[in-house]
Specification:
The structure holds two protein chains of two kinds.
Chain A lengths: L4 E2 L8 H17 L7 H24 L7 E11 L2 E9 L1 H24 L6 H20 L3 H19 L6 H32 L4 H6 L6 H19 L7 H4 L5 H10 L4 H8 L1 H4 L3 H22 L5 H21 L5 H28 L17 H14 L6 H14 L3 H30 L23 H22 L3 H10 L11 H23 L14 H7 L4 H40 L2 H9 L2 H24 L1
Parallel strand pairs in A: 1-2
Antiparallel strand pairs in A: 2-3
Chain B lengths: L2 H17 L2 H4 L2 H25 L8 E9 L4 E7 L1 H20 L11 H20 L3 H10 L1 H11 L4 H34 L6 H8 L4 H18 L8 H8 L2 H11 L1 H14 L1 H28 L3 H20 L4 H32 L15 H14 L6 H13 L4 H26 L30 H19 L2 H18 L10
Antiparallel strand pairs in B: 1-2
The chains are: A mainly alpha, B mainly alpha.
Membrane topology (chain B): Multi-pass membrane protein
EC number (chain B): 1.6.5.11
Organism (chain B): Lentzea tibetensis
Chain lengths: 643, 520
């Protein structure tokens, strides 16, 4: 890897990408109520400004030839002898791709939030948090080393915490926010220790130097680093075994779920692994673990997604599962990095659109999230229905829509893995496609089709349901995202456009011929998706789904409803023993350690009676004994001096 | 320019005398103004000190010395290195804020503000002197004298069990000090043997004592270390701190936890490492075990506390584990991390304590269970609790991240296992901070401290709840801390530049070099 050039021309203004959203956040959060009237507009303006600049930067970079990689040093952040951490930005195809995704989807969701949060008290604070998120996320992808990445990494964690806990007067939102932050921190440990190992071995944590000298690690260290980075990725991206926080995170407002917990932040793990491709290229075992995690998560997400009745939680598990696909893809190595990023981008479009659609439905349904209380909403929310359905078709891989190009490519690549891996990972990915079609079709039917089941019901706050289409500020972003869901995959995949653009960062996309040809996989995937969707139509299409959730269900459904016991496992393994350990330690500290101290004092004092005097304040006698002690010491000093 | 340092020592002393004058003792309002004026003047002097100090200059700067007890080679000598400089600076920053935060505090009946603030200024003078002393005997004397105003502050102005806490604090620290005195005398004797003239001069002792054989060093090391381990405090010498923190008035808690404790870790760096290098290396494994135990034990206990002020004490115990880990890992990054941790801990824990003090001032209870859902009625207060919590859990962008990151990345090359164990403290920190926030600030408004107007289980209209958000004075107290938290989080280099040469000198006195070298 060659040394990146110093950013010049339009690139020398790249600090604007961080400064604009950070400025917006600062004004909105410090300004307080004074910004109520125009705060949301400032929030939108800064993000759109960042997007416009990002697009200009993208096109100017596109015009360059060669590596297309430059760096812009802003200042020295931490410098102690051998350790130097610059606050510097790296502008290369991978980071610029993310800049467009983050600011592009970010702008749409900011605009959507104007309408969605219109009745919220403290809307400007919400925009302040959103701006904070965008700034942190841009730092995450633009930083030129692992420490700046870590900065952004924890920064988005904070924004996520604040936004999940937006309705913090609701206990479940507050505990979901804490849970997300905590589980993310578990992952962050991995990232942190990997950074320590890099500094220890190479004396640097900047990408260029780490990647060019990656050969100096022993194979054991490489394996350790790949696994530690994977741990970080699992925390941030809701991958097994750290997936349990993501569905709970749906307690946040829907625009947050769309932006942070679908399109951008949760895909940071995929970014991390793709970014670290020179390290992962060296460890086949490390990549195998990545693939296993991806495949396991992909299945877990699909299975649980089939059983949930909460609109957003089904989508959340769908996100878990789709990120599983991306992790599987980047775990495949040079045949998969670019495919993982491609799926990440198309997923960014259609999943954000699906979430915004869900938000639009809930907005029109008194914030109802239970899909059993919906049905037949297509004619009440026509724009939402059409845009949502396009996103749905893209997700299940309907031919020639976005997901068809990006997901099929991953499935085909999985089949090309060596030996048994091809069968297993290819098979899992294929099965996942069928399950995805099943649970998404169930969602489509229960929400939009069939007979309305809400007519005779009232929402929790006692109001009747009067579903209605959302305002333009909400539908317009949904339409834009729907267009992306339809066309982005085709555009990226044609002539390997995206893969070639990313090649300077991710290496050339290698195509390997595996068990099945690309065409066969395509046909198989479409077929199995149709089977899944058809099955859902057969089961739910008659509109007989009861309003109340049936409780007497078979074991698999029960297990899926209980998140496949992920939460129970966490509870048993960590939470409960931790609580007991803490209680025991508090007891020991009071009775044992402190008791020992007081006991010793009593012993020295000769009787516990004296201790009681001590405790009730006979200090003068102690002052006296101290004085005596001092005389004693001074005497000793004299003896020493004149002996 | 050594007058600056002398002035820093004398000014708060004068302030203490002035506010104790009878006419000010009768007028609380005036006494507060006078005390604040003195503490602000002290802060300005500290700024001058910072500007005067040359980071690349001699080991000790702005030195001055006069004979005290000539027969024993005891001098009144003062001077600062980069480590002492940042500690003196942070004291000067915190004291005006402590005075401002306690402006509306009700003192126990019969006590005057003049007396209280006089003791605080006296405490400031002595503590500055402890960091500035360059004579070992002088250091010992100040180390013990430092206890006296604090004893009266806790015992005279504290909570229900204040006498117990004050005596425990006093005896515990005093005992540690006496053992240190024995070691100091040992050093004196060594000097007498080696160079024919006994002395307590630190710079001379460093060159003499380090030549002693390892077993002698170990005994002398232990004398100093025990005193510092109690002061810092390290587990298992920590039990005085929760009592002292819980019983002291909130401003005094800031001084105990935020400032006095640092004398312990400062002492390890100034006395243990340079004077007893062989012993430091030999005993490092023991200290590291205590350090990591402190991180994990303190964190777990913090999650288990029901009282906010005891919670603060255990949080600090965990943080002192990190500081000790950095000191005894013997790398420049870890060492600089530890010193900046000392500074940043004062700022961020100081802020956390003050904010919790503001919570307690509203609810009148220190029990966590008496609160809930406060963010609804006091959003700004909630924001400040969250921000001070985030810096306590070392979120990047806040000051504490820089120091915790430096400690850990610097310790890893020499102590990978201990470092990885200590890293678990990061998760636990997130747990205890966010859990506290969740219990106090989120959910529906609840808790006997907040709903005093309603019966049990009564839901009170938030409009009617007697809880108000931060007032202007409180905002003015917290604003400088918020600024420091962010400034030192994004641009810590001015502090690191001051500290790095002094830590480098300390490590070369220990005789170690960094495992990771520049340009490797």
């Amino acid at each position: 890897m060659t040394e990146p050039v110093v950013a010049s021309g339009i690139g020398s203004l790249a600090w604007l990408l961080l400064a604009l959203p950070a400025f917006g956040a600062a004004v909105l959060l410090i300004g307080g109520k004074r910004t109520d009237k125009w705060g949301h507009l400032l929030g939108c303006a800064t993000i759109i400004g960042a997007f416009v600049y990002g697009a200009a930067l993208f096109f100017s970079t596109l015009g360059q030839t060669g590596e297309r990689t430059s760096e812009l040093k802003l200042f020295t952040w931490i410098d102690v002898n051998a350790l130097t951490v610059d606050f510097a930005l790296r502008l290369d195809p991978l980071s610029l791709t993310f800049v467009l995704l983050i600011t592009g989807v970010g702008s749409l969701i900011h605009i959507y939030s104007i309408g969605y949060m219109a009745h919220e008290e403290g809307r400007r604070k919400f925009f302040g948090y959103l701006n904070l998120f965008v700034a942190a996320m841009l730092l995450l992808v633009l930083g030129n080393g692992f420490v700046t990445l870590y900065f952004g990494w924890e920064g988005v964690g904070l924004a996520s915490y604040l936004l999940i806990g937006w309705y913090q007067h609701k206990p479940e939102a507050a505990s979901a926010a804490k849970k997300a932050f905590l589980m993310n921190r578990v992952g962050d440990l991995g990232l942190a220790i990997a950074i320590f190992m890099m500094f220890n071995q190479l004396g640097t944590t900047q990408y260029t130097e780490v990647f060019s000298r990656v050969g100096e690690f022993s194979s054991g260290e490489i394996l350790a680093i790949t696994l530690l980075l994977l741990l970080g990725a699992c925390g941030k991206s809701g991958q097994f075994p750290l997936q349990a926080w993501l569905p709970d995170a749906m307690a946040g407002p829907t625009p947050v779920s769309a932006l942070i917990h679908a399109a951008t932040m949760v895909t940071a793990g995929v970014y991390l692994i793709a970014r670290s491709n020179p390290i992962y290229n060296l460890s086949e075992s490390g990549r195998l673990v990545v693939m296993i995690i991806g495949a396991v998560t992909l299945l877990i997400g699909c299975i649980i997604g089939c059983a949930y009745d909460d609109f957003k939680k089904v989508l959340a598990y769908s996100t878990v599962s789709q990120i599983g696909y991306m992790i599987l893809a980047v775990g495949l190595g040079p045949v998969g990095y670019a495919l993982g990023i491609m799926h990440l981008l198309t997923h960014g479009f259609f999943k954000a659109g699906l979430f915004l659609g869900a938000g639009s439905v809930m907005h029109g349904m008194n914030d109802e999230g239970d899909i059993r209380r919906m049905g037949g909403l297509a004619k009440h929310l026509p724009i939402t229905f059409v845009t949502w359905t396009l996103g749905y078709l893209a997700l299940i891989g309907f031919p020639f829509l976005s997901g068809y190009f990006s997901k099929d490519a991953i499935i085909a690549a999985a089949f090309s893995a060596h030996g048994w891996q091809g069968y297993v990972f290819g098979g899992v990915a294929l099965l996942g496609a069928g399950l995805t079609a099943f649970y998404m079709t169930r969602l489509l039917i229960l929400v939009f089709l069939g007979k309305p089941r809400w007519k005779d019901l009232k929402s929790e706050d006692g109001r009747e349901y009067h579903p209605h289409e959302s305002p333009v500020s909400m539908t317009a972003p949904m339409i834009v995202l729907a267009i992306g869901s339809v066309g982005a995959g085709w555009w990226f995949a044609t002539d390997n456009r995206l893969a070639e653009w990313l090649a300077p960062t991710l290496g050339e996309l290698r195509e390997e011929h595996g068990l099945l040809s690309h065409g066969t996989v395509g046909i198989l995937t479409v077929a199995i998706s149709f089977v899944g969707a058809g099955l859902a139509f057969v089961l739910f299409g008659r509109g007989t789904q009861p309003v109340e959730r049936p409780l007497r269900v078979s074991f698999p459904v029960r297990a899926a409803r209980a998140d496949l016991y992920g939460n129970a496992l966490n509870e048993t393994l960590f939470a409960r023993p931790g609580t007991w350990l803490t209680r025991a330690l508090v007891f020991i500290d009071m009775k044992g350690v402190d008791g020992l101290v007081n006991g010793t004092a009593a012993l020295l004092g000769g009787s516990s009676g004296r201790l009681r005097r001590l405790q009730t304040g006979f200090v003068r006698s102690y002052a006296l004994s101290m004085l005596l002690g001092t005389f004693f010491v001074l005497g000793a000093l004299l003896v020493v001096r004149y002996s | 320019m050594s007058w600056v340092l002398i002035a820093l020592l004398v000014l708060p002393l004068v302030g203490a005398l002035v506010v104790s004058l009878p006419f000010l003792r009768r007028d609380d309002a005036k006494a507060k103004l006078v005390a604040l004026a003195f503490s602000v003047a002290e802060l300005l002097l500290a700024v001058v000190l910072w500007i005067t100090y040359e980071p690349g200059g001699p080991r000790l700067q702005l030195t001055s010395s006069v004979d005290w007890i000539a027969g024993f080679g005891v001098h009144l000598s003062f001077g600062v290195d980069g480590i002492a400089l940042v500690m003196i600076a942070v004291i000067a920053v915190l004291i005006p804020l402590v005075i401002g935060a306690g402006w509306a505090e009700k003192l126990p009946s019969g006590r005057s503000a003049g007396g209280y603030l006089g003791l605080i200024l006296l405490q400031e003078a002595i503590t500055v002197a402890v960091f500035a002393a360059t004579d070992v005997f002088l250091f010992y004397v100040l180390f013990e004298v430092m206890l006296i105003p604090m004893y009266f502050l806790i015992g005279g102005y504290g909570g229900a069990r204040r006498q117990y806490a004050a005596v425990k604090f006093f005896l515990y620290s005093f005992l540690g000090g006496l053992i240190m005195l024995a070691s100091a005398i040992g050093c004196y004797v060594l000097a007498q043997d080696k160079i024919g003239k006994g002395t307590f001069d630190w710079a001379t002792l460093v060159t003499v004592v380090r030549e002693a054989d390892t077993s002698t060093q170990i005994w002398l090391f232990l004398g100093f270390f025990l005193a510092f381990a109690i002061k810092a405090p390290l587990v298992p010498f920590h039990t005085w701190l929760p009592d002292a923190a819980a019983e002291a008035p909130i401003g005094v808690t800031v001084i105990v936890v935020g400032i006095l404790d640092k004398v312990g870790t400062f002492g390890m760096l100034r006395y243990n490492l340079p004077m007893f290098p062989e012993a430091s290396k030999a005993l490092a494994p023991v200290v590291l075990v205590l350090a990591v135990a402190g991180v994990l034990y303190g964190s777990l206990l913090a999650t288990g506390q029901r009282d906010m002020k005891r919670f603060l004490a255990y949080v600090s115990i965990a943080h002192f584990g990190f500081i000790a880990l950095g000191i005894f890992s013997f790398t420049s990054q870890a060492g600089v991390g530890s010193v900046s941790y000392m500074l940043n801990h004062s700022i961020s824990t100081g802020m956390l304590i003050l904010v919790i003090g503001m919570v307690i001032a509203r609810g009148g209870s220190t029990s966590i269970a008496d609160y809930g859902g406060m963010s609804k009625v006091a959003p700004l207060l909630a924001g400040m609790l969250l921000l001070s919590g985030l810096t306590t859990l070392s979120l990047p962008g806040t000051n504490s991240f820089v120091s915790e990151f430096l400690v850990l990345i610097g310790s890893y090359p020499t102590q990978p296992v201990y470092t990885i164990l200590a890293t678990l403290g990061m998760v636990l920190a997130a747990l205890y901070v966010l859990w506290l926030y969740q219990r106090v600030m989120t959910g529906p408004l609840r808790g006997t401290a907040l709903l005093s107007t309603g019966g049990p289980g009564a839901t009170v209209d938030p409009e009617k709840a007697p809880i108000t958000d931060l007032n202007k004075r409180e905002i003015a107290v917290l604003a400088p801390l918020v600024a420091l938290v962010l400034l030192l989080g994004f641009y810590p280099q001015p502090v690191l530049d001051v500290v790095t040469p002094s830590v480098g000198a300390t490590l070369s006195e220990v005789g170690v070099t960094d495992p990771v070298q520049e340009g490797k």
